[in-house]
Design goal:
Elements lengths: L4 H13 L10 H9 L5 H13 L6 H17 L2
């Protein structure tokens, strides 16, 4: 498990709770931003969006956060 996972999940939960009344869901860019705790670049958002679009089964928020953290860390280690 990623060491920042619990903090990332809490940030995403807070974003979900702070939505306007009646709002449904949360945009991918906001989820990625909350997960990595910084403004994501467009490439990272596009990679997450592509991964989400390719899924045929529902994904849980912990699975999504884990995937974003792993992808973000992988990209950072490639430079």
């Amino acid at each position: 498990m990623h060491p920042d996972r619990n903090l990332a999940l809490e940030r995403v939960r807070q974003k979900l709770e702070s939505r306007e009344p009646g709002s449904v869901g949360l945009g991918i860019e906001k989820i990625v931003s909350a997960t990595i705790d910084s403004e994501p670049d467009e490439e990272l958002v596009d990679l997450v969006r592509s991964a989400m679009n390719s899924r045929t089964e529902p994904i849980t928020m912990p699975e999504l956060v884990d995937g974003i953290l792993n992808l973000h860390n992988w990209r950072e280690n490639q430079t």
